[in-house]
Automatic annotation (TrEMBL):
It comes from the Bacteria. InterPro entries: Com_YlbF, YheA/YmcA-like_dom_sf. Pfam families: Com_YlbF (PF06133). This is YlbF family regulator. The lineage of its organism: Bacteria, Bacillati, Bacillota, Clostridia, Eubacteriales.
Amino acid sequence: MDRERIFEKAKELGELIAHSQVKARADEANRALSADETAVDLISSYNDKREEKMAALEGRQPSAEEAREINEYLQQEFNKIAENPVIREYIEANQTLDQVLSQMDQIIRNAISGSGGCSGSCASCSGCH
């Protein structure tokens, strides 16, 4: 198979994904997030807090304890904004799309290397690895 045919198949796969329900859900979640002033404000506030914590560390290496505390603080703040239904849907929809893309990448890599253990049917699968 020549390169042109490979690129043609890659484009075809990209178009299938672009027109999939998974992509449509992610696109709708992106639109909903952009249109929701509360969600946008929550994200902006979270980003400000994150930048403030990072600025406090500028020019120095934090101790392991300080790094853990900052990480915990930011995770708690993220969990708070993720309670917003619009933000939660955005996160879930985009994670699902990312998982599909990652699975496609793994399937392609396994097919190239000849390994894989994929029967081609997801019914018998415990998930792509």
